Amino acid sequence: MNRTFDEWLETFRASINDYDYYTDFAKVYERAARFKAEIYLLNSLAGSKDIERDFENLLAKYPACLRAVPILLAVRAEEIFCRDTNYRFDEPNQSVEQYKFFMRRTGLFDLLENHIVSNLYDYATGVEVGLDSNGRKNRGGHQMENLVRKFLEEAGVEFYAEKYLDEVEKIFGLDLSAISAEGTSTKRFDFVVKSSETVFGIETNFYASGGSKLNETARSYKMIAEESKNISGFKFVWITDGNGWKSARKNLKETFLVLDTLYNIKDLEDGIFRELFK
What is residue 251's predicted lDDT score, i.e. its pLDDT? Predict the structure, then answer.
């Protein structure tokens, strides 16, 4: 496979974000629905002319409505600490007066009393959308793995996901001490593939933006590439992509020159797995 580093780097892409990367609406709706009944009970307070009394009456009849309070503050927890007071909302541990104080000081009474919102369930759904944005990092971290998994499945090869070095040694009878620091490393491969003669340990990542982590990653994988060369029946494979590498090209090039099984998404699209896992 003849290729030059500069030409290869030019095929890197800016993003692999899928349509569900930005907001996972299925989870948003599921989370909002968990307290749907309780939210609608609290919604009865919207526009109240005597909200503290109405809140007290509501708690007397339906104390479980408190379970919906945290999500209105964009908190996914059953207890909230304010100064020296611990408020529980699954199992009330404070007096009604104390909960009234909480609702007033956090601004929730004002939100309801002045009719700033008329539908708390819609409001809670919006809060969940905001909270879900925090999950983008986790979704982004798995996107490259999911993409590589798809290409492995299309190649029709048997593979293992998330295997530690010691597990690979036991399954395939290999001695990976050269890359495990004599058994002390807790390194884990994203995927492991066994062909007719070789076991492949695969690492995957995608970097849309630069940073010091990229240089550390390139150096680390260069070391694994060099250490694994003398392991019989084993090959290290690194699949990476992302325009972040263009600011860390020097370190990536050093690894490129010593690791002939360093690929990007374009290589996967060109069918490198079918050639590699013969």
Answer: 93
